[in-house]
Write a structure and sequence with these properties.
homodimer, about 350 residues, alpha/beta, 2 domains, six-stranded parallel sheet
Chain lengths: ~350, ~350
C-alpha cells in the first residue's frame, strides 16, 4: 500500500428490542492497518444483508456467537485483495468472506485457515450473483431443498419469501428438478415477477387479505404440499401445515416474521399435522455444507449461464445507509437479494 | 352358537367439548347376530384404552375417520372366536382386532381381508402384554424409536408419558439399544417404578414444580437430548426443545396434554431450536408399519421372556365402567397400560 487508508466501520452500539434502528449502530473511522504475517487486507466491494443478521444482534447462544457490543457488525461479502502476506492470495484477487460492515477487512491467517476467505471466479457469476444464487442464500436454498427436502419430480413445493434471495434459488431449482412450485411473497409486483420471470407455477400474495394464503394453497396445491421451504414462520407456517400431503417435508430455514418480536416466538399450533401426515420438519444451517459448496456452485452457475435460472439483486449503495438498508428486509421492501454496495 | 346371546355396547352419543364425560356415551344391548359367510363372531376379552380415542370422538379428518354419532365406539382389543364362517379362524382362537367397546364383535370378511383381525399366540405374551408391549402401543414405540428416532449407543433418549404404554416400551427398548434414558412422568410413584423396575437412568416428575422438567433435563441430560419421544406436547415439548443436542430427532407420537383443549393446540414456541440444532421433528402413525409388526413382536416378546423388558397393565373391569376408565388417561391416574377387561 502506498498511503494510509481510512476505514469506515459500522459497529453494534446496543442490542435492539424489537426492530433495529439507527440508534443500535455506531459509526467509526480508523486508519487501515497492514496485514500480519499470513494475513490479507481486503477492500470491501459489496456486502450481503441477510435476515439472520437480526439474530446475530441478540445476546445468547444460537448457531453462531452473537456480535459483541462495540464490535464491527458481522457480514459476508465480496472484496478485492488490497494487500497480502499470504501466498494463497495476490493483490487484485476477488474473494468472498466474512468481511464485516466496513470498508476494509483485515483477515488474519487463522481465519483464512478456517476457510474464512475464498477466492471466487467472476466468470462463474457477477458479484451480485456471488452474494445471491452462488452465495450463502443460494447454498442455503440448494442444500435445504436437495438434502433436507429431497424433491421428486411431480411433487408440489411451496416456498415463502419467494422473491427473496433464498426463495428464488429454491423455487427455480425445484422447477428444474421437475416439481410444481408455488411461491408466497408480499405484493403483486413480486408475485408477478416470480411467476413471469422465474417461472414458478403460481405465487400467492400474502398481503392480499387475511385468508389469501389459505385460499391460494387450496387453489394451487390440490394434492397438498409435499415440500415447504419456510423462511418466514408465523401464521404462514401454520397455514401451510394445514395443507400438508402425506410424507411432507418442511425445511426450517428461518422465521423472519418473528425476528423482531418482543414477545415469545409464535409456535406452530398446527404442528400435529406432522403426526397426521407422517411429515417431518427439519432445520438447516448452511455452514454444515461448507465442504460441498463447490458442487452446488458448479451446478447453479451452469443454470445461470444457460438461462434456466435467473438472479435478482436489490442493491443499496453506501456504507452509511446500512441501518436503513437492513430494515428493508423486515418490512419486505427489498425486491430480490439485498446487497449493500460499498465500493466499486 | 347354541342360544341367543346379548351384546352390551357403548356408543358415541354426542361429541365432547373438552373432556369426555358419561353424557357423551349411550349404552345399548342387542342380541348377538350370526356371522355372515366369510365372517367371524368374536367375544371381547379385553380392550385397549388409548389417548387416541379422544381424537376419534372429534369431527373432522385425521389419520383415521372419526367415530360416527350413534356408532359403537372404536377400540382395539383381544377376543376369542365364538363362531366362524371363515376357514382361517376356528372357534376358540385368540384374536386381536378392532372389536369396539362391546361384548361381541361381528367381524365381516372385508374387514378380515384388510388385516383387521389377526390370530395371536398367548405363548408369546399374556393378553395384557398383547395390548401393551406386543400391541399397538408397543408397535408405536418400537417403530417410532427405531425407524424415526434411529438411536445410536450412548445417545440420550427422553420419553414423556414414561410410565404409560408407549413410554415403557420406548424407554426399555432404548436402554437395550445402549442409550441413556430419561423418562418424564407424573408423580413420585411412577418415577420410582420407571427407574427401579424398568431401569431408566432417571425419571423427572413433571408434577414436582413448574421448573421440574427444565431442571431435571439440565441435571440428567448434560450433553443435551438426542432423541425425544413425545407423547404429551404442550409445555413439556417446549422445555425439551430448549435442550436439544445437535442433530436431534423428535418423534411426535401424540399430545395428550392438548386433546381435551377447547382452545387451539399450543404450538411449540421453541421450534426454532430445530434450526439452531439441525434437528428434526417427525410424526408417526403406527398403521403404516402393519406389514412389519411380526418382526417387532418377535423381538419384543424375546425381551419379555428373558426379563430384559417388563410390562405393566392397569386393568379396569366391566364394560359399564368405560366412560370413567377412559378419563383416567387424561388425568394421569392410570399407572401402566390402561386395559378394560370385559370378560374372562
Amino acid at each position: 500500500m502506498s498511503s494510509p487508508l481510512s476505514n469506515r466501520q459500522v459497529r453494534l452500539a446496543k442490542r435492539p428490542e424489537g426492530a433495529a434502528t439507527r440508534d443500535n449502530w455506531q459509526f467509526t473511522t480508523e486508519p487501515v492497518a497492514e496485514p500480519a504475517e499470513g494475513g490479507v487486507l481486503v477492500k470491501t466491494l459489496s456486502l450481503s444483508l441477510d435476515p439472520a443478521m437480526r439474530g446475530w444482534m441478540n445476546e445468547g447462544k444460537s448457531y453462531i456467537a452473537p456480535v459483541e457490543i462495540g464490535a464491527v457488525m458481522r457480514a459476508g461479502g465480496v472484496g478485492r485483495v488490497a494487500a497480502s502476506r499470504n501466498p494463497a492470495f495476490a493483490v487484485g484477487d476477488t474473494v468472498y468472506g466474512t468481511l464485516g460492515v466496513q470498508e476494509y477487512a483485515l483477515v488474519p491467517q487463522e481465519e483464512i485457515k478456517r476457510n474464512g476467505l475464498a477466492k471466487i471466479d467472476l466468470r462463474a457469476g457477477t458479484i451480485g450473483q456471488w452474494l445471491n444464487v452462488l452465495g450463502m442464500p443460494g447454498m442455503t436454498g440448494y442444500f435445504g431443498l436437495m438434502d433436507v427436502g429431497q424433491p421428486k419430480p411431480g411433487e408440489t413445493v411451496v416456498v415463502s419469501g419467494a422473491a427473496g434471495a433464498v426463495g428464488q434459488t429454491v423455487g427455480q431449482l425445484a422447477k428444474i428438478k421437475g416439481c410444481r412450485v408455488v411461491g408466497i411473497a408480499g405484493g403483486a409486483a413480486k408475485c408477478d415477477w416470480v411467476v413471469k420471470e422465474l417461472g414458478f407455477d403460481a405465487c400467492i400474495d400474502y398481503k392480499a387479505g387475511p385468508s389469501a394464503v389459505r385460499e391460494g394453497l387450496k387453489a394451487h396445491c390440490p394434492k397438498g404440499v409435499d415440500i415447504y421451504f419456510d423462511n418466514v414462520g408465523g401464521d404462514i407456517l401454520d397455514t401451510v401445515l394445514a395443507k400438508l400431503a402425506r410424507g411432507a417435508r418442511i425445511i426450517i430455514c428461518g422465521a423472519i416474521s418473528q425476528y423482531n418480536n418482543t414477545t415469545p416466538v409464535q409456535g406452530p399450533k398446527n404442528y400435529l399435522s406432522l403426526l397426521v401426515n407422517r411429515a417431518r420438519m427439519q432445520g438447516i444451517v448452511v455452514f454444515d455444507y461448507a465442504d460441498r459448496y463447490g458442487e452446488a456452485v458448479a451446478e447453479l452457475s451452469g443454470y445461470l449461464k444457460d438461462g434456466r435460472m435467473k438472479s435478482r439483486e436489490d442493491v443499496v449503495e453506501g456504507i452509511d445507509t446500512f441501518p436503513e438498508a437492513l430494515t428493508r428486509l423486515f418490512t419486505g421492501e427489498n425486491f430480490g437479494k439485498l446487497v449493500l454496495k460499498v465500493s466499486d
